[in-house]
Amino acid sequence: MAEDGVVTLYNNTAITDTKKNPVSIKVGLTQMLRGGAILAVSNTNQAKIAEEAGACCLVITEPNRQGISRMPDPALIKQIKRAILERVGVDYIDENEVLAIADEFNFINKHNFRCPFVCGCRNFGEALRRVREGAAMIRTQGDLSGTGNIVETVKNVRCVMGEIRILNNMDEDEVFAFSKKIAAPYDLVAQTKQMGRLPVVHFAAGGIVTPADAALMMQLGCDGVFVGSEVFDNCSDSYKRVRGIVEAVRHYNDPHVLVENSCGLEGEMAGLNVTEESMEQFGE
């Protein structure tokens, strides 16, 4: 990816000194997360459980509540970092769809920040547009309601992977028209064709609450999964549930491991089943 010609929009060099952390460095940092599960947590107890269960990274979110969702209190981030890593700061920034959108038409120029950005998408074109803005990791997003419904995530991941396969089978002279069709930068479309995959790390998120869900995302071609904080809700043994998902990501092609980590979780998943009321909402 081209790194020259980055436009700096902010004057504070504390966050805009891009020469110290070019895109290649940011993308390299996210490569360390491949093959892992990222857990969303809202307190230190959940963070400790996720760490002990083998989560490769944590996303700190506000506790589930009604109304407009915003970024968590920075004090909570510091508290969790001290409890786990004994240091303060953030490693990645998640430009999350769950948060209330302050600007519906303009996205952050992520090149202007030292931290790598994680951005969501629902299709191939959107993924590459976020990469052009400076995203170092792409998260194909599904259901955001916390019901444990994996269907939307499967559909969106298959959409992204399907369009990449179509691109890989194109002649070189068809690529430019394809990039216009999906409204994506031509150079990134060409790079994806050359690599046979997205040019940055690709995770899946939304409705992933069982080992089988996580394994399916990996089998579809994702590099890892995001797991929402709903896996901690109404659960007598959160560690067992999270550990099962982590192991499923690591051994997604081993049916014996998947069976072993799925046994005894029926009661733990009861609160995440899609109810008739939930189905009525999806049908509206």
UniProtKB/TrEMBL annotation:
Domain of life: Eukaryota
Protein name according to UniProt: PdxS/SNZ N-terminal domain-containing protein
Keyword Metal-binding on entry: no
Organism: Gossypium davidsonii (Davidson's cotton)
One Pfam match: SOR_SNZ
UniProtKB keywords: Pyridoxal phosphate
GO MF term set: amine-lyase activity
Family statement: Belongs to the PdxS/SNZ family.
UniProt domain PdxS/SNZ N-terminal: residue ranges: 24-205
Listed GO biological process terms: amino acid metabolic process; pyridoxal phosphate biosynthetic process; pyridoxine biosynthetic process
